[in-house]
Design goal:
135 residues, binds protoporphyrin IX containing FE
């Protein structure tokens, strides 16, 4: 995968440092813009979900150069998401809200180039999850 890993890493650390509630802000945006997905998030307590998502994002950002890890991990994650009732179009909604939360938190570290790098990375990751969901 040909991603701008260094730009993705630097904007992610800037965003996480500036805004410890980055992931919570993402959920708030998602549930405000797409309230229809809210009932799907009922297995775990909100804090636990936020922690799992935070850890998953950190792990993915750490492995952007490891195509094998990305494919194995994200395809398995995509299969689990099928069980959660996630439909393909929802990946666009999550991507939109994740990028909006990141852009807001990253502040001055954000740029058109960062938006481009994150858009490409998210599309690639979502694509791997969707591949896993189709197996
Ligand atoms: C790159 C995209 C995504 C990543 C990295 C991600 C990550 C995660 C992680 C780490 C979990 C915790 C449990 C597990 O490992 O399966 C989870 C659960 C979940 N995700 Fe995602 N996810 C993504 C996309 C989506 C999308 C598009 C939806 C659709 C609305 C979604 C809905 C859910 C739901 C409903 C759960 C279960 C929540 C609960 O515990 O109640 N995810 N996700």
């Amino acid at each position: 995968m040909n991603l701008n890993a260094s730009l993705i890493r630097s904007t992610f650390s800037a965003a996480a440092e500036n805004e410890p509630r980055l992931v919570q802000n993402f959920y708030n945006l998602l549930f405000t813009r797409y309230p229809q997905v809210k009932p799907m998030f009922s297995r775990n307590a909100p804090d636990k979900q936020a922690q799992m998502l935070q850890e998953a994002l950190v792990a993915v950002v750490d492995h952007l150069d490891d195509a094998t890890w990305l494919a194995d991990t994200l395809r398995a994650m995509g299969r689990k998401h099928l069980d959660y009732g996630v439909e393909p179009q929802m990946y666009d909604w999550v991507g939109e809200c994740l990028l909006a939360a990141l852009a807001d938190a990253a502040g001055d570290s954000w740029s058109d180039e960062a938006a481009q790098a994150w858009t490409e990375a998210y599309q690639a990751l979502a694509g791997l999850m969707l591949n896993g969901a189709q197996d």
